[in-house]
Each structure stands twice: as C-alpha cells, then as structure tokens.
Amino acid sequence: MKAITWLASAAVGVAALTSTAFATTPEGWITDLEKAFEKAKAEKKSVLVEFTGSDWCPPCIAMRKNVFSKKEFVDAASKKYILVELDFLNGDPALKEKNTPYAAKYLVEGFPTVILFSEEGKEFTRFFASEYPKIDLFLEHITKALDKKGLD
C-alpha cells in the first residue's frame, strides 16, 4: 500500500511540474533571438540564451522553478545580460519548429544549454544550466564568464 501511495504522489508531482503553467516564458525573458541581439547592441549588454524543454525536460523544469523564474535572478542577471529563452515545447509544435534552426546553428547537444554571447553576437561560452542549480551559483558563474570574455 505504501508503494502505491508513493507512486501516486510521485505521479501527481510530475504532472504538476510538466503542466502548461510552467510552459510560459518567465517574466523578464524574451523569446526572439534576433531582437535580443539588437537590444544588446543598443544597451551594450551581453546575451544569455537558454535552450530549454520546459514541458518535458526535468533539469529544465527544475532550473526554471529554482532559478530562471525568480525575480532575484532576473533582476541581477538582466543588469548585464539580455535574457532569451528558446523553448522546445512538446505541447507547442510551432514554437519548437521556430526554435529548431537555432539549436542546429549553435550545435546544441542537450538541454538545458546556456550560451553567452557578446553584444556583437559572438559566443564566448556555453554550459549546461543544471550545473549551477541555485541562483547564487548561476549568477557567480555568468559573472565570471563575463569577466573572462575580454581575455580571449
């Protein structure tokens, strides 16, 4: 009986995490990469692009819940970065199709991948977001990456 109760609660938890409520773009993020590059030039900021599967990828769902949707993160990161989410939703085939050329162009091999670009659109680093699962760790990592950008 305990196994059935545990299984039922786990199923409800997974259903909650994968609901479409989590499939909307978090506040402070944009979904158009070309507009992000234009905005980055105008504001003299770098660009942070997250490639995600927000309705099917467990690490992506966890990152959104614990980091990317948090005001603390958005406020801090958006001081130096234009935040872009390119989502590959199973529940929105049109959006997935729209973003697929970017995944091919930038050779994205897994989710959640983050690529950091200069304001000119030149990639200066990439990593799996789930390596930095807390706001402070993630912010520290992207700050260090930005500091090293000019050294290349």
Describe what you observe in this structure:
The chain is α+β, with helices and mostly antiparallel strands. The chain has a single domain (20-149), classed as Glutaredoxin, CATH 3.40.30. Helix content is 48%, strand content 16%. The protein contains six helices and four strands. It has helices at 2-17, 33-43, 58-68, 71-77, 93-105, 135-149, and strands spanning 46-52, 81-87, 113-117, 123-128. It has a four-stranded mixed sheet, with helices on both faces. β3 (113-117) and β4 (123-128) form a beta hairpin. α4 runs parallel beside α6 (135-149). The longest helix is centred in the first third of the chain and has 16 residues, at 2-17. The protein is globular, with a radius of gyration of 16 Å. The model is unreliable at 1-22 (pLDDT under 50).
Classify the fold: give the CATH topology. Answer: Glutaredoxin
| Average pLDDT for all residues | 88
Could you say how many structural domains there are in total?
Answer: 1
Strands, total number: 4
Encode the helix/strand succession as letters.
HHEHHEHEEH
Number of helices: 6
- For this structure, what is the CATH homologous superfamily? Glutaredoxin
Any low-confidence stretches, pLDDT <50, length ≥5? Answer: 1-22
Query: Biggest sheet, in brief?
Result: 4 strands, mixed
How far do the termini sit from each other?
59 Å
Broad shape: globular
Instruction: Assess the beta-strand content as a share of residues.
Output: 15-25%
Kindly state the percentage of residues in helix: 40-55%
Structural class of the secondary elements?
Answer: alpha+beta
Strand order across the largest sheet: 2-1-3-4
Name the CATH architecture: 3-Layer(aba) Sandwich
Specify Rg, calculated over alpha carbons. Answer: 16 Å
CATH class: Alpha Beta
